[in-house]
Structures are given as structure tokens and as C-alpha cells.
Amino acid sequence: MEFKGAMGGIYRLTEWITRLAATNLLWVLCSSPFVFCLILKLLVMNQNLANESLQMNWAMAILAPLTLFPATSAMFTVVRKWVMGDTDTGVFRTFFKGYKENYKQSLIGGIFYTLLFVIMYVDYTVYMTQLSNLQIVGVIMLILIIILLVSMFNFFSMVAHYHMSTGQIIKNAVLLTLIRPFRVFSTMLGSAVVIFIGVKYPVLFLFFIGSVVAWFAFFNFYGTFLKMQDQMEKMKQKDEDTATIEDKKSDNL
Predict the structure, then answer these.
(1) What is the per-residue pLDDT across 192-246, written as a single tens digit (0 to 9) for each?
(2) What radius of gyration, in Å, describes the C-alpha atoms of the chain?
(3) Quick one: three-class SS letters along the chain?
(4) Largest distance between two CA atoms of the chain
(5) In sequence order, which residues have a C-beta less than 8 Å from that of residue 128 and are 6 or more positions away?
(6) End-to-end CA gap in the chain
(7) In contact, 123 and 61? CB cutoff 8 Å
(8) Spatial separation of the C-alpha atoms in residues 99 and 110, rounded to whole Å
(9) Which end of the chain has fewer CB atoms at under 10 Å, N or C?
């Protein structure tokens, strides 16, 4: 039965709240070891326990490829369906199907990104705290960290959307981040606003923040994908038209 008017609007809103919350809860559940270490990290930071904080850093670095990356790829598999118009897909089934199918690529990509983040973060810390005359290098490292962070959105989107090797996905994710700066800025800004709201109301991280950020990131990615696809079709049509004109000229000769 389809509701109309105000009741229809309320029903659709309730549906979307349920979808977002269910997807976010599955994401939190499947990445719970990483989330648990992150919470412990925040607690020990508040108590200024440096050694324990460092241990939590290592624990999160180990757990991120194993839990966080596969869970996030699965979440992107769900929001991909929504962005492409398939809003009636089963959240639970689609999530775990994406989790299973993309686990290997997410694990390999997670190891790559985690290693780069660790290396860049250590370099940034050293240049900013111990080598004061080379702080400009630290600023550059910070910019690279931000670019790498944003490229992760494209990585997860490509894992969910394409069938290609992990190396190609990582390379294309980074390249797409560099050649589409407006999309990068809008994704980063939108995600920052959502996360800021989550910081004000932490309970939202449990139910909505992850799925909302994922939806917005894939929405931006898919817009870029459609635009690039349209440009490629126009170039292909132009080449075909040029070839046709040249053939006609050859026939006339």
C-alpha cells in the first residue's frame, strides 16, 4: 500500500531513517574491534597516558585492514544501490554480500592505506615537533595525508562499483582525487560537517554518521563517473564522425 500526501512523506522519511540506521549499525558491528580500540585510545588520551595511547595506535593499525576496511566497503555496496536508484534492496543481504565479495580487495587496500598513513603521520610528527627548521615539509606531509584520506572515499566507491584489480583501483582512486579537485573539496567539506555534528551528538556515530558520509561520498563519485562516461561517449562519437568524413573524402577521390 502506497501512502500519499503528508503520510507518504512521513513513511518515506521513516524508511530512509531505518535504512541508514541499519546500515550504520552493521558497519559498527563488523568493525567493532577497531571501534573498541578507538574508544580506548580516546580514553587514554584524556588521561595523558602516552604509552597506552601508542599501543592503541598500533592496535588500530593492525585491526583497520582486517575489520574497518571490509566493513566500510560493504557499507559502500549498500549506498551504491541507493544512489543508483535501487532503494528497495535488502540492507542485510546486500551488506554481507558486499562484505564477502570485496573482503580480499578491502584487506589489501587497507594494508596499503594503513602503511602509508603510518609512514606519513610519523614523518609529519617528526618534522613538526623535532625539526623546526623543516616544518614546511611537515605541512606538505599533512596535505598528502588529507589527499590520501579523501582518496579512500574513491577507493571504497570503486571497490563497490568496478570489477578490476586492487592495484588499478588504488591508482585510479588517487588519480581521480587529483584530477577532480572540486569533487574532492565538496566530499571533504560535506563529510567534515557531518562528522562535526556527530562530535556534538556522539550517539549519531552509532546510527547515522558512517552511512550518511558513505552515501554522500558515493553520490559525488557517481556524479564524476557519469560525467566522465558522458565525455568519453562524446569523444568516441566525435572520432567516429571524423572517421566517417575521412572515408567519404576517400571515396570521392
Answers:
(1) 899 889 888 888 888 889 999 999 999 988 888 888 777 777 777 776 666 666 6
(2) 22
(3) CCCCHHHHHHHHHHHHHHHHHHHHHHHHHHCHHHHHHHHHHHHHHHCCCHHHHHHHHHHHHHHHHHHHHHHHHHHHHHHHHHHCCCCCCCHHHHHHHHHHHCHHHHHHHHHHHHHHHHHHHHHHHHHHHCCHHHHHHHHHHHHHHHHHHHHHHHHHHHHHHCCCCHHHHHHHHHHHHHHCHHHHHHHHHHHHHHHHHHHHCCHHHHHCHHHHHHHHHHHHHHHHHHHHHHHHHHHHHHHHHHHHHHHHHHHHC
(4) 86
(5) 135, 138
(6) 68
(7) no
(8) 14
(9) N
* Model confidence, pTM: 0.86
Alpha-carbon distances, residue 125 vs 31, 37, 44, 45, 120 (angstroms): 27, 21, 19, 17, 9
224 and 180 in contact (C-beta within 8 Å)? yes
Classify residue 176 as exposed, middle or buried by CB count within 10 Å of its CB (0-12, 13-18, 19+): buried
**CA 125, CA 250: separation in Å to the nearest integer?**
66
pLDDT over 70, % of the chain: 90
d(CA 72, CA 95): 10
